[in-house]
């Protein structure tokens, strides 16, 4: 077993808990599924795994042994924990940032466990800058855009959402969320239709009329309704 004093061992574990807690505190403030305790535990566990891997098995494995094998399992194993923080609401996904923070906190724990204090502390500082400062920058950028509701009814067909997304992209409009209703037969149109509700992010000075006109040109599009505008209707040809 490699030499490691009790003081050094405690220092690494305590530092791992502090660094993990710093990131977890930011997530806790935003009421995320993985908060203060989860990040502390992940960072502590990663640090301990690295210590056990390098210190505990350093001599037992011999010169040809792979001391990083145990620690490498942390990187893959943390994916299962991160997946638990990702939630799907309609077609929108939440929790990706928290999942990423868990993954990088595990890496911080590994660095702390092996004694790379500068790398661990520097990475934690950069994480906090990303979570705090970049959020404010994103909020400022969002002020230049507004969110509007878009309702569509179209013939139920493969590739419909892809064509709608292409038209929205051509108009510099981003899809924030999508909700699809179950396909049903509409007697008014004598065909199987699907209703789509979208929350769309658009820039200042956006022309909704042009967007509606282009959406109505999509084959099979029946109705287009934009928040604050009259509904546009495209009648199907008589068969």
Task: Report on this structure.
This protein has helices at residues 6-29, 36-56, 68-83, 96-114, 117-142, 160-170, 208-216, and strands at 87-89, 92-94, 145-155, 174-180, 184-186, 191-203, 221-226, 232-233. It is an alpha+beta fold and 239 residues long. Strands 3, 4, 5, 6, 7 and 8 form a six-stranded antiparallel beta sheet that branches. It has a two-stranded antiparallel ribbon with strand order 1-2. Strand 5 (184-186) and strand 6 (191-203) form a beta hairpin. It contains seven helices and eight strands, in the order H-H-H-E-E-H-H-E-H-E-E-E-H-E-E.
The residue ranges in which pLDDT falls below 50 over 5 or more consecutive positions are: 235-239
What is the average of the pLDDT values? 79
**Major pleated sheet:** 6 strands, antiparallel
The helix/strand class is alpha+beta
**Relative helix content:** 40-55%
Content of β-strand: 15-25%
In total, the number of domains comes to 2
**Discrete helix count:** 7
The shape, in one word, is elongated
What value does the Rg take, in angstroms? 26 Å
Gap between N and C termini: 83 Å
Annotation, overall tally of beta strands: 8
| SSE string | HHHEEHHEHEEEHEE
């Amino acid at each position: 077993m490699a030499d490691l004093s009790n003081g050094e061992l405690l220092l690494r574990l305590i530092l791992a808990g502090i660094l993990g807690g710093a990131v977890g505190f930011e997530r806790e403030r935003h009421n995320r599924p993985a908060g203060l305790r989860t990040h502390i535990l992940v960072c502590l566990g990663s640090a301990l795994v690295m210590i056990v891997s390098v210190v505990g098995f350093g001599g037992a494995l011999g010169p040809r042994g792979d001391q990083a094998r145990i620690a490498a399992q942390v990187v893959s194993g943390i994916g299962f924990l991160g997946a638990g923080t990702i939630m799907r609401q309609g077609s929108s996904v939440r929790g990706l940032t928290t999942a990423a923070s868990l993954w990088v906190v595990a890496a911080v724990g590994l660095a702390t466990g092996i004694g790379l204090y500068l790398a661990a502390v520097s990475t934690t500082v950069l994480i906090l800058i990303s979570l705090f400062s970049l959020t404010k920058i994103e909020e400022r950028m969002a002020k230049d855009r507004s969110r509007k509701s878009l309702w569509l009814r179209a013939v139920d067909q493969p590739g419909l959402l892809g064509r709608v997304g292409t038209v929205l992209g051509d108009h510099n409009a981003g899809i924030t969320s999508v909700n699809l209703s179950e396909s049903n037969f509409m007697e008014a149109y004598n065909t199987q239709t699907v209703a789509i509700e979208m929350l769309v992010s658009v820039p200042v000075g956006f022309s909704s009329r042009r967007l509606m006109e282009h959406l109505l040109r999509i084959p099979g599009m029946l109705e287009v309704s934009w928040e604050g505008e009259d509904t546009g209707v495209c009648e199907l040809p008589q068969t």
